[in-house]
Design goal:
This protein has 375 residues and is an alpha+beta fold. Helix content is 22%, strand content 35%. It has a 20-stranded mixed beta sheet that branches. Strands 22-25-24 form a three-stranded mixed beta sheet, covered by helices on one side. A two-stranded antiparallel sheet has the order 21-23. Strand 15 and strand 16 form a beta hairpin. Helix 2 runs antiparallel to helix 4 and helix 3 packs parallel to helix 4. 37% of the residues are buried.
Length: 375
Amino acid sequence: MHVPEDQLRDIYRKYVNNQCTPEELAQLVAALGEDLSPAAEEQVARLMDETWEQLQTTPGQYPLPGTPVVPMRPAAVRRWWKPVAAAAVLLLAAALYFLRPSPSLPAGQPLAEAAIAPGQQGALLTLEDGRVVALDSAGNGVIAVQGSAELAIDSGKLTYNTRPGAQAAPAMNVLHTPRGRTFRVILPDGTAVWLNAASTLRYPVAFTGEERAVELSGEAYFEVAKAERPFRVKAGALAVDVLGTHFNVNSYADEERAVATLMEGRVKVNNNLLTPGQQFVQEGGKGRVIPAADTEEAISWKNGYFRFKDENIQRVMRKIERWYDVEVAFRGEVTREEFSGTISRDRSITEVLELLESTKTVHFKTEGRKIIVSR
């Protein structure tokens, strides 16, 4: 069943005005799941982002925070399609239930007064049965049990603990960090994964096959636990195979290239063997190995800061957009200057933009949570 985009937008408007019925929400989620062609996937991702932004900037009545688990009733939601698209459909519904708006900013507010806070820890976890857990509102302790796995929050990270004697369940989980959020998970084999903002990781609650396979959309840093079975990360155009090592994968759909950077150990990326300090870049249908990569830049996000190195303003603003959960628009001619510099991700967006403005090549102003970029 195809639902026209204008009808989807009408449902969004009704929701933010506290008028959307559960039946309409179920219709929306089920309809988006009927056809997940590339065009439909792009539509889902775009509308999900618009919904997130609208819920943050539109005043109204919203569900009060309580138990972080909400059952997703539509049967269509419980099916698994292509991993990223399935996550998008599930998380669209999760966003409608969980996200509470931040106070909106008056239109045209001066940059120096913009109260746009930096990102923080938080994620949405979709379980095999369709339930969604808002991890930024879940306290320490057990949040779910799936077969042999006991899921718990421990000091701000998600862990999977094996229950002795319990049978492993062939269940899959999806961990999603919206824009403005990062999160850490310890997978069932002990592998630690840090997810950057606007990223999705799909993985089993128990690794039972010949390999330990996960799927990534966005960016993540992996510290893979050593084991005889290989660990594989499928991230868009990249396939990373390892036994035990530390590496970063950047595979955002809106970036021109996908990059895997090795910090420690050895990995094979698209059948290219990397040693520490090397990087594999997939761009324009071609791959190449960079023998001496800037590893500090590659994991700067994990270490809590932005590191711009000869980057154009579009790429710089995409990083800012994800971390501060803002919309970026370009007005007029776009500067061709490249930017280099380092600043903490704990700084306000005003400080980051003022640093860029100090180059005298770019100018910013805010309209609500929208950043206008001009020369």
